[in-house]
Amino acid sequence: MVRTPVLVPFSQVVLKVHSRCDLACDHCYVYEHADTSWRGRPRAIGEAVVDQAAHRIAEHALAHRLPAVHVVLHGGEPLLAGPVLLRRAAEQLRARLPADCALDLRIHTNGVRLNEEFCELFRELGIKVGISLDGDRAANDRHRRFADGRSSHPQVLAAVELLRTPRYRDLYAGLLCTIDIENDPVAVLDALLELDPPKIDFLLPHATWDAPPPRHGRQAPYAEWLLTIHRHWLRLGRPVPVRTFDSIVRTLGGRSSLTESLGLDPADLVVIETDGTFEQADSLKTAYDGAPATGFDIFANSLDEVARHPGMMARQSGLAGLSAQCRACPVVRSCGGGLYAHRWRTGAGFDNPSVFCGDLMRLITTIRDRVAPVQPAAAGTGAGLTEDQLEQLAGGYGDGATVRALAAGQLDLTRRLLAAVGPAAGPAWELLTELDTEAPLAVDAVLTHPYVRAWAVRCLSDGTGGADLGPLAEIAAAAALRAGRSTEVAVPVRGGAVQLPTLGRLLTGGSGTAVLRGGAAAFTVRAPGGAEFRVAHDQPAGERWLPVRRVELPAGWTVALEDLDPYRDSHQWPAEQRLTAAALADWTGSLREAWELTQRDLPQYAAGIAAGLNTITPLRPGPSGRDVSAAARQAFGAVGIARPATAPILALLLAHEFQHVKLGAVLDFHDLFDRADQRLFDAPWRADKRPLEGLFQGTYAHLAVTEFWATRVRAYDGLRGDAADHAREQLARWRGHTDRAIDTLLGCGALTPLGERFGRGMRASLDRWGSVRVEAAPLPAPAAKPAELPA
């Protein structure tokens, strides 16, 4: 029996908005390699193509229930398309995607045309900007010149400097550097680091066995070049994520790659050209003329049809799709055979190792042997929970004492994570350990900030023990200020600002290292350029000092509206930027109303929320204004929410997301199911199947959703109208979904005894609302018309 391959949906789309370029880079795979299809394509994408492309992407996202789609506006040089066309593309994509599908929209440019007009547009539309830059001027000018030979370097530097300004810093997605072994690798890295990028990606030059890369008589020159970079990068303390290095470490640890050029993850990228034709990955243009073509276009074909194209399927077949030599290689799960295009050889097609095979072998094995993975300390055996507290949590609830016990366990876990990261930070770690002895409450106040743990986990997740240690100095500085310590602390200046977790952000300008000194009434910061700033401890927000803003609510709940911390992007939806005064007032008013409703209608959830939810991160509105919210597994105490239109929905989102926070804290210390069970299960609220943890999390969160709608239905008892009917529909839906999910959990055979206890507890809580009827009350019969009285 022949098994039909599973279709892998596309979650990444490259949309070509312009097919020409204003540079004449001699290493460009679009214009200088084997494929010549660009000559016959329209220069700019047409409006009809934009609209149909948005329709096809939305159609695909809806069919496959994609939680997010990543679209890169590309070229040629995409800025040549102009602001009007770029706006239309962004607005069409956002307008047409399903309400529950997020759009990650980016543009990749050579930067020479980037100006404030474009940046304002991208800021409005939420478009991140990646820049191609090959290093210092000498390195960049080797290939990236105008057609008349002029250097493009000054214009690119001006573009990057614009992105580094505080107004546009959040648009800055990173730098992409194509490797040339003639360039000095240390000079290249130093030049890129001077531009303070959020990340760097180094790309091997495109080549095939028919047109191999220059080697100058050396055996693995590209590995040598990258390993020199890697050694220098390690010596500098891993100042910025480098996608190639991070991907190697991740794949060596059995996890997914961050790039299609490494690992065995199925390719999920498709290209839409300016004429609306679908193509495979752009890199295939280096293989032979017409290599990326599929024969499909957006007007006649769906993305599902494209996904079944033999070329697409070949790039999605993992180990089975590699050559025999690759399948026998000891580092195949990390290498993945290299980039698909680099395997091409006339007569053998793509059934070959990469033309960079020797380089990849040396690079991967050297990094494997050079970097000893750092593992966090093993989790403790419990979070100090009593039997009664476990019983509360099993039912979906948890009073203040119970949630404070969870928080204590999370604080202990954060401390152990920092212990795995911190020693490499030197003086900052030493200061933090001193403060922990002298002023432990001040340290605790900073370490309970949810995004401290989020940062620490990111440092450890790549197996290298800390890709960015700068935040540890920020943590130590914030703790020192809280403790009243007057010592000097060296802190990083990134994006023109000094970040102080739980306190705020000081805009200093520039980049590098600043020196902070605390005091009884104020602290001072000496910026890298010598300018000094003074901030009083009670100073309100000003032009340079942006404090964390907190909302004080009844019943002792004070919550921070965190719109500053760089690691607040831990949620699956994009974070909102600094709230304006008007937006802050709207949030404050909505929270007060939502909290009153929570205390009244969800009292068994309210006490736990007040005890454990210390941070709300405002998110950007979802597509078409959809209500979106999220809880990050590694950020206990925080939820992300795009402020909804009504206070009741805000109350619902708070209760729903804090359920995820609580259950995540329980799972850090207790096994509720067999973690080795890899089965996927039906989740009634989703089209795709879910692993056990995902099903457990969703079921637990929907207990609060069911209770919320049950209380609304009770309030409408005997009443008719749109609001009442909507509440009844919602209760019927979520009660039914949650009931079926609990049955699935209890019948799966993989729950531990404590997991069974949670399943029974959830069943008991759900049954409380089984008697709330969802049928609308009948309209009363009209009263008899009274007899008319005689005149």
Keywords:
single chain, 791 residues, alpha/beta, TIM Barrel, 2 domains, nine-stranded mixed sheet, five-stranded mixed sheet, 25 helices, globular
Give the oligomeric state of the chains in this entry, treating copies of one chain as homo and distinct chains as hetero.
single chain
CATH class of the largest domain: Alpha Beta
CATH topology of the largest domain: TIM Barrel
Q: How many domains make up the coordinates? A: 2
Compute the CA-based radius of gyration: 28 Å
Proportion of helical residues = 40-55%
Total helices: the number is 25
Number of strands: 21
Keywords: Iron, Iron-sulfur, Metal-binding, S-adenosyl-L-methionine
Protein name: FxsB family radical SAM/SPASM domain protein
GO molecular function: iron-sulfur cluster binding; metal ion binding; oxidoreductase activity
Organism: Kitasatospora acidiphila
Structural features, described:
Keywords: Iron, Iron-sulfur, Metal-binding, S-adenosyl-L-methionine. GO terms for molecular function: iron-sulfur cluster binding; metal ion binding; oxidoreductase activity. By secondary structure, the chain is an alpha/beta fold. It folds into two domains: about 10-370, Aldolase class I (TIM Barrel, Alpha-Beta Barrel); about 385-615, no CATH class. About 40% of the residues lie in helices and about 15% in strands. It contains 25 helices and 21 strands. The strands form four sheets. The protein has a nine-stranded mixed sheet with strand order 6-5-4-3-2-1-7-8-9. A hairpin with a 3-residue loop joins β11 and β12. The protein is globular. It starts with 11 loop residues before the first strand and ends in a 24-residue tail after the last helix. Mean pLDDT is about 90; it is low at about 370-380 and about 780-790.
